[in-house]
Specification:
With 293 residues, this protein is of the alpha/beta class. The chain is 49% helix and 12% strand. It contains twelve helices and six strands. The longest helix has 19 residues. The radius of gyration is 21 Å and the shape is elongated.
Length: 293
């Protein structure tokens, strides 16, 4: 019998879709059914089955039921558990109510972030969103939305601070952030905002689930000179890591083994080239005091 994982309400629909997709892929392969045949069964295509198995589309309950029949899943309890997972996977995440200010390409990331067990991120220009103060976040948002109404800016700031609740859960993910020194010295919002932001980062270094490292200017060129990226890892072994690269008007999600290995190696090199974590607090205090001068 297939084991169906219990959905964590905090995860949102993204990871539930990934989990259900992984289950359906295992069942299809176990039954010796091709993606083409599965697509025909649900009046669709091979590519639709591929997207379903990767958790990149929503699920129609009728399609899941038809696939379960095709794959020989007849036990009522198992079928109902998987159909319930399909229904739960179609439920909107908490971010749904921010749809007026949330681009569609970012919604998937919020679901992944909410469900990750480990988030490793490299930032070259800004403090990571999960660690931004509201004032700093507002200043960053205004860089890309000058002239936006105050209400819209407030909504965007609210969305960013709502994301940070993931770090205050009973079982928060591990966050390992590597920051280029430039991100800490760029006076986003002015000296007062930067001092408060650096104080917040200093406080974050005391959290057991947060690890910060700084790549100093003295390091010269480094492994991730091409730009910021994040690697998300999940607690379920059925789910592959995901690399997230944000662009101005879209984002790239990578989960192929070669891509994952490339970015994982780049992250490892960054951690070696960065100052050791035990020096982070000292460096943050030094930079903060320079903004106070």
């Amino acid at each position: 019998m297939t084991t169906v994982p219990a959905g964590d309400p905090a995860s949102g629909p993204t990871v539930l879709r990934m989990l259900l997709g992984a289950q359906l892929r295992r069942l299809r392969e176990g039954a010796g059914v091709s993606r083409e045949s599965a697509g025909w069964e649900i009046r669709s295509s091979e590519s639709k089955i591929s997207r379903m198995e990767l958790g990149r589309v929503g699920f129609k309950e009728r399609d899941v039921a038809d696939l379960l029949t095709l794959y020989g899943v007849t036990a009522a309890e198992e079928r109902e558990a998987l159909l319930k997972l399909a229904r739960d996977a179609n439920s909107p995440g908490w971010w749904h109510r921010y749809g007026d200010v949330l681009p569609s390409w970012f919604q998937s990331y919020l679901g992944l972030e909410a469900a990750a067990a480990l988030i490793r991120t490299y930032e070259v220009q800004f403090v990571p969103g999960l660690l931004q103060t509201p004032e700093y976040a507002r200043a960053v948002i205004l860089l890309g939305h000058r002239g936006a109404p105050d209400e819209e800016v407030d909504r965007r700031v609210s969305l960013r601070t709502k994301r940070q609740e993931v770090l205050r859960r009973d079982k928060p993910p591990q966050l390992w952030a590597v920051l280029d020194e430039a991100a800490l010295r760029r006076p986003i919002g002015g000296p007062e905002v930067m001092r408060a932001q650096l104080d917040a980062l200093i406080a974050a270094t005391a959290q057991p689930h947060v690890q910060l490292q700084i790549v100093p200017f003295a390091a010269g060129g480094h492994a991730a000179a091409s730009g910021a990226f994040s690697i998300l890892r999940f607690g379920d072994q059925d789910l592959p890591d995901v690399v997230y690269i944000e662009q101005l008007t879209s984002a790239i999600y990578l989960d192929k083994r070669d891509d994952l290995d490339y970015y994982a190696l780049a992250m490892e090199r960054l951690c070696v080239e960065a100052a050791p974590p035990e020096r982070t607090r000292e460096m943050l205090v030094e930079i903060r005091d320079e903004f106070s001068a």
